[in-house]
């Protein structure tokens, strides 16, 4: 792919159209005589470099801003990292009768915490890697997509030997001594230990895109919960608790979020310029999340905004019964070009162990680029929408249009074709 050449073409045609400022836009206009290049249609990199993830971090100071001794005291360097893996003796009258118990516990106070090398050793034997997109329940835009590498939570829990009365596993990242800074999340014991063979497991990640997980992205070790929104994927992981409290005690639930929501299938439009010359194709691009209920296709609908046009609600008849058409979903990338050097696809979860082909395209819990080139629109004002249709045939924002279980309102962009 000669992306440099096509880039230059795009600059030339954009400048010719007097839209020099729009070159970084991804909904751009391309001279009809210039072939539309692949990088115009798929402007996203397949794996997101760690630094370019949209960051969602709590804490004051934020853990990734710590340096020197403060960073070591926080035990957030590979040499100092320690993980407590303990039982929570919680009981409550009339609610939880018996406390959880474990044959073995790992506790820094006892000098028995799990260190980085021990986790690496587990990884040596039981490590897995997979590609997964990160998406915040509350932000209508994917945060990034990574190749994550680490150890399944089930393998780490096995270190505790026999367990009794454990119904949930909850975990926290580093926080300072202020209890209001605690940000914890949880999974059921079953979710932690019994991964359906076709699914990705809950796991402790220590590598991203082939490199040690950076402090910025939650390193040295973060939790990754593949089927969930980002709040379950706790960064700067330091503590895991085994409890008999069956209730979902995620901090996120206190902010009116559904703590059991699954990663939602949805289409997210890229931003771009709002004015175009007459007679040129308008390229609409975006990314879709392949969530828990699968991704069947992405659709778009363009309507002309005639004077007096009403704002349309996602659940309006006009939107539901509009003549939606298919967007083009990006093909599988040239894997050798997008994966870190030396990555053998046959070793990735979600890929066939013999052929190296992905078990599904788009990848489960991954994100995929989509596009459509709009041609022959006459001068006027327009509004374009994109939506996903999930594996059960439900169109976005269904089947869960409750925005506190994942933001997936139908996105719109408005633009004008000049006379
Ligand atoms: N320790 C800790 N982990 C955390 C958070 C946090 O504030 N503190 N934010 C969570 C939320 S809400 C999201 S969406 C993801 C974002 O991950 P990213 O910053 O790597 O994109 O991290 C999650 N893990
Ligand atoms: Mo989030």
Structure, explained:
- The chain has 419 residues and is α+β, with helices and mostly antiparallel strands.
- The protein folds into 2 domains: 7-41 and 264-417, Immunoglobulin-like; 51-254, Alpha-Beta Complex (Sulfite Oxidase, Chain A, domain 2).
- The chain has 8 helices and 21 strands.
- Strands 3-1-12-7-8 form a 5-stranded mixed sheet. Strands 4, 5, 9, 10 and 11 form a 5-stranded antiparallel sheet that branches. A 5-stranded mixed sheet has the order 14-21-20-16-17, with no helix packed on it.
- The protein is elongated.
- The structure holds ligand MTE and molybdenum atom.
- Molybdenum atom is lined by residues 56, 136-138, 230-231.
Set out the fold topology:
Blueprint: H1 3-16, H2 38-41, H3 68-73, E1 82-87, E2 101-102, E3 114-115, H4 116-126, E4 128-134, E5 144-152, H5 153-157, E6 163-164, E7 168-173, E8 184-188, H6 189-193, E9 203-208, E10 211-212, E11 222-224, E12 237-243, E13 266-269, E14 275-276, E15 282-289, E16 297-304, H7 317-320, E17 325-326, E18 328-329, H8 335-338, E19 367-374, E20 380-389, E21 411-417
The structure holds the ligand Nc1nc2c(c(=O)[nH]1)N[C@H]1C(S)=C(S)[C@@H](COP(=O)(O)O)O[C@H]1N2 and molybdenum atom.
Residues 53-58, 134, 136, 143-144, 173, 183, 217-218, 230-231, 233-236 line the site of ligand MTE.
Concise overview:
It is built from 8 helices and 21 strands.
Structural class: alpha+beta
Strands side by side in the biggest sheet: 3-1-12-7-8
Number of domains: 2
**Ligands (ions, cofactors included):** ligand MTE, molybdenum atom
CATH homologous superfamily annotation of the largest domain: Oxidoreductase, molybdopterin-binding domain
Task: Spell the H/E element sequence.
Answer: HHHEEEHEEHEEEHEEEEEEEEHEEHEEE
Beta fraction: 25-35%
Helix content: 10-25%
Annotated CATH topology of the largest domain: Sulfite Oxidase, Chain A, domain 2
**CATH 2nd-level architecture of the largest domain:** Alpha-Beta Complex
Count of strand segments: 21
Give start-end ranges of low-pLDDT stretches.
1-27
Distance, first to last CA: 35 Å
Number of DSSP helical runs: 8
CATH top level of the largest domain is Alpha Beta
Rounded to an integer in angstroms, the radius of gyration calculated over CA atoms is: 24 Å
What's the mean pLDDT score?
A: 92
Please state the overall shape, judged from the principal axes of the Cα atoms: elongated
């Amino acid at each position: 792919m000669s992306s440099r050449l096509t880039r230059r073409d795009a600059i030339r045609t954009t400048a010719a159209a007097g839209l020099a400022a729009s070159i970084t836009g991804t909904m751009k206009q391309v001279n009809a005589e210039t072939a539309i290049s692949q990088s115009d249609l798929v402007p996203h990199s397949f794996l997101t470099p760690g630094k370019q993830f949209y960051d969602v971090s709590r804490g004051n100071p934020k853990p990734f801003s710590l340096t020197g001794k403060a960073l070591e005291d926080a035990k957030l360097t590979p040499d100092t990292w320690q993980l407590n893996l303990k039982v929570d003796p919680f009981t409550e009258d009339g609610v939880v009768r018996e406390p959880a118990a474990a044959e073995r516990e790992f506790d820094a106070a006892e000098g028995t915490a799990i260190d980085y090398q021990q986790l690496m050793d587990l990884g040596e034997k039981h490590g897995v890697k997979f590609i997964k997109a990160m998406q915040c329940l509350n932000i209508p835009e994917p945060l990034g997509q990574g190749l994550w590498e680490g150890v399944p939570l089930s393998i780490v829990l096995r270190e505790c030997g026999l367990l009794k009365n454990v119904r949930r596993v909850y975990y926290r990242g580093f926080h300072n001594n202020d209890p209001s800074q605690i940000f914890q999340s949880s999974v059921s014991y079953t979710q932690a230990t019994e991964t359906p063979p076709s699914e990705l497991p809950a796991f402790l990640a220590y590598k991203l895109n082939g490199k040690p997980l950076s402090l910025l992205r939650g390193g040295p070790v973060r939790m990754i919960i593949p089927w969930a929104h980002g709040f379950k994927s706790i960064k700067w992981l330091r503590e895991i608790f085994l409890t008999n409290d069956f209730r979902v005690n995620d901090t996120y639930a206190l902010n009116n979020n559904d703590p059991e929501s699954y990663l939602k299938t949805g289409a997210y439009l890229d931003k771009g310029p709002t004015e175009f010359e007459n007679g040129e194709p308008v390229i609409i691009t975006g990314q879709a999340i392949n969530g828990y209920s699968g991704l069947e296709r992405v659709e778009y609908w363009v309507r002309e905004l005639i004077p007096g046009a009403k704002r349309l609600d996602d659940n309006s008849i006009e939107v539901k019964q509009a003549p939606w058409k298919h967007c083009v979903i990006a093909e599988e990338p040239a894997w050798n070009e997008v994966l870190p050097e030396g990555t053998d696809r046959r070793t990735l979860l979600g890929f066939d162990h013999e052929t190296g082909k992905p078990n599904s395209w788009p990848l489960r819990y991954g994100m995929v680029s989509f596009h459509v080139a709009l041609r022959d629109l006459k001068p006027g004002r327009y509004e374009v929408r994109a939506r996903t249709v999930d594996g059960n045939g439900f169109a976005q924002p269904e089947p869960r249009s409750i925005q506190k279980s994942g933001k997936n309102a139908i996105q719109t962009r408005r633009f004008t074709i000049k006379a």
